[in-house]
Design a protein that fits this description.
Strand order of the largest sheet: 3-6-5-4
InterPro entries: Glyas_Bleomycin-R_OHBP_Dase (IPR029068), Glyas_Fos-R_dOase_dom (IPR004360), VOC_core (IPR037523)
Helix content: 10-25%
CATH architecture: Roll
CATH class: Alpha Beta
Number of strands: 6
Keywords: Dioxygenase, Oxidoreductase
CATH topology: 2,3-Dihydroxybiphenyl 1,2-Dioxygenase, domain 1
Protein name: Glyoxalase/Bleomycin resistance protein/Dioxygenase superfamily protein
CATH superfamily: 2,3-Dihydroxybiphenyl 1,2-Dioxygenase, domain 1
Low-confidence stretches: 133-138
Mean pLDDT: 91
Structural class: alpha+beta
Shape: globular
Organism: Asanoa ishikariensis
Largest sheet: 4 strands, mixed
GO molecular function, one term: dioxygenase activity
């Protein structure tokens, strides 16, 4: 078996607010959108490279402690790599996100911020502080 794509499917109560936030504020690219006659709607947004990060409970608590200083994340959290974590945190807060923790430098040399965003999702924005050479394998960052 070869996996070609990972897609996270999220049911959101306020579809319009979630689209406005993720497409318009965060800047994810609309790949496709569909609607049904009964009011059903879905939009697929492209978010660059996808990874699946599996963490045991101890690591989950450790990351919360490093990034926020206390346990806050639900079982699922979405992390987006950005170029400027500080500016993007401010931009998303202005677009309706609640800042849980401001950008904080981590021991693994990234700048990470936490937000609660439309769709009842908990999000990390992270900015890698050490540039990697092109085509090098990604380093494990503990997002």
């Amino acid at each position: 078996m070869t996996v070609k794509q990972m897609r996270l499917v999220v049911e959101v109560e306020d579809y319009d607010a979630a689209v406005a936030f993720f497409r318009d504020a965060l800047g994810l690219t609309e790949e496709a959108a569909f609607s049904g006659g009964d009011g059903a709607q879905v939009m697929i947004l492209e978010a660059g490279r996808a990874t699946l990060e599996l963490a045991n409970p101890k690591h989950h608590r450790y990351i919360d402690e490093v990034e926020v200083g206390r346990p806050v994340a639900p079982r699922f959290r979405i992390a987006f790599e950005v170029d400027d974590a500080a500016a993007d945190t401010d931009k998303l807060a202005a677009a309706g996100a609640e800042t849980v923790a401001p950008p904080t430098e981590t021991p693994w040399r990234s700048l990470n911020a936490r937000l609660d965003v439309p769709g009842d999702l908990h999000v990390t924005l992270f900015q890698e502080l050490d540039a990697q050479p092109p085509h090098s394998p990604p380093k494990a960052t503990g997002q």
